[in-house]
Amino acid sequence: MALHFELVTPAKLVRSEEVHMVVVPGMEGEFGVLEGHAPFMSTIADGTVQIFKSAGGQPEEIQVRGGFAEVGDKGLTLLAEHVED
Amino acid sequence: MASLKELKGRINSVKSTQKITKAKQMVAAAKLRKAQAAAEAARPYAERLATVMGSLAAKVGGQDGAPKLLAGTGSDQRHLLVVVNTDKGLCGGLNANIVRAASAKARQLIEDGKQVEFYLVGKKGRAPLKRNFPDRIGQHFDTSTVRDPGFEEAEAVADELLEMFEAGKYDIAHLIYPTFKSALVQDPTVQQLVPVPTPEVETGSGDAVVEYEPGEEEILEELLPRYIRTQIFGGLLEVAASEQGASMTAMDNATRNADDLINDLTIQYNRSRQAAITTELIEIIAGAEAL
């Protein structure tokens, strides 16, 4: 019961792991992605991505700038132009 | 016949040249590994972007309101050739090959009655292209100040190109860069950059209804500049890998050449030395016999 999450920048594959939930700063508001989310695509605003490794745990935060998010059968793929850990 | 001292000097000078080429070869080998790793690391992003682009472009592309970057300006008169060269030499025929490919493309376009302008990235292509097409050189982007051209440089180049496109300076842009095949082979590639060619994607995987936010067209409009940036970034990475690969091969050849040269010179040196000794002996013996 996990969501496959990938964070990719032009320079490298930053993350590829199983997580519980990811909160993405979408252009039209933040949205959380859990396992089994419907296919969805959105551009993302500059902001913070929160990664919840487990339910109720402390989120890990990553700053992203410019990009978009895609939710498919394979999980969530975040394409960001710049990433700051 | 050169004197012994002269020969010795030449052997030494070839030896020191060989030291330089050998060092450069080893440096290139180490850098090649790094450049290849960078090119590989960039692949996932480019692939995913191409997939998304393909599925979106297939949906929006046929409609009237498709973005200009995808549909084109409707004319194909003015062409911009973006040529990516290296900044440093010592890499064999790499730059010459790129310049040749660019010139061939330009001549073909000119023959078809189109207007051609160049946009040059990297130092080494400037002089030969300027010689071939003195009045068609447009702008030049300097990458020689940074050690490893990265995404920031690609972004800067892409932004400038997009600005020129917005201003209506050209209709079609091509990217010319070497594709790294192996350390021995780097093929110059000509690729259309603007309008963005629709990437091929296998349909069928996207049968599920995808929800878009804000909308398909808005996303596509954001995506296209990003896609162009990624293409240019890919070109920069390829040129970096190609430069190191070509440099490695060229320097390997040079080192081997120097080896041959040293061998030849050493044999010549020894022969002259022996000839000198023999002459001396003959002189001594002749002197002793005369007594």
UniProtKB/TrEMBL annotation, chain A:
It is a peripheral membrane protein. Residues 3-82 form the ATP synthase F1 complex delta/epsilon subunit N-terminal domain. GO terms for molecular function: ATP binding; proton-transporting ATP synthase activity, rotational mechanism. Keywords: ATP synthesis, Cell membrane, CF(1), Hydrogen ion transport, Ion transport, Membrane, Transport. The keyword Ion transport applies. SUPFAM superfamilies: Epsilon subunit of F1F0-ATP synthase N-terminal domain. InterPro entries: ATP_synth_F1_dsu/esu (IPR001469), ATP_synth_F1_dsu/esu_N (IPR020546), ATPsynth_dsu/esu_N (IPR036771). It is found in: Cell membrane; Endomembrane system. One of its GO terms (cellular component) is endomembrane system. Produces ATP from ADP in the presence of a proton gradient across the membrane. F-type ATPases have 2 components, CF(1) - the catalytic core - and CF(0) - the membrane proton channel. CF(1) has five subunits: alpha(3), beta(3), gamma(1), delta(1), epsilon(1). CF(0) has three main subunits: a, b and c. PANTHER family: ATP SYNTHASE DELTA/EPSILON CHAIN, ATP SYNTHASE EPSILON CHAIN, CHLOROPLASTIC. Belongs to the ATPase epsilon chain family. This is ATP synthase epsilon chain. It comes from Altericroceibacterium spongiae.
UniProtKB/TrEMBL annotation, chain B:
This is ATP synthase gamma chain. It holds the Pfam family ATP-synt. GO terms for cellular component: plasma membrane; proton-transporting ATP synthase complex. SUPFAM superfamilies: ATP synthase (F1-ATPase), gamma subunit (SSF52943). It is found in: Cell membrane; Membrane. GO terms for biological process: proton motive force-driven plasma membrane ATP synthesis. Keywords: ATP synthesis, Cell membrane, CF(1), Hydrogen ion transport, Ion transport, Membrane, Transport. It comes from Altericroceibacterium spongiae. It is a peripheral membrane protein. The keyword Flavoprotein does not apply. The keyword Transport applies. F-type ATPases have 2 components, CF(1) - the catalytic core - and CF(0) - the membrane proton channel. CF(1) has five subunits: alpha(3), beta(3), gamma(1), delta(1), epsilon(1). CF(0) has three main subunits: a, b and c. PANTHER family: ATP SYNTHASE GAMMA CHAIN (PTHR11693), ATP SYNTHASE SUBUNIT GAMMA, MITOCHONDRIAL (PTHR11693:SF22). Produces ATP from ADP in the presence of a proton gradient across the membrane. The gamma chain is believed to be important in regulating ATPase activity and the flow of protons through the CF(0) complex. GO terms for molecular function: ATP binding; proton-transporting ATP synthase activity, rotational mechanism. Belongs to the ATPase gamma chain family.
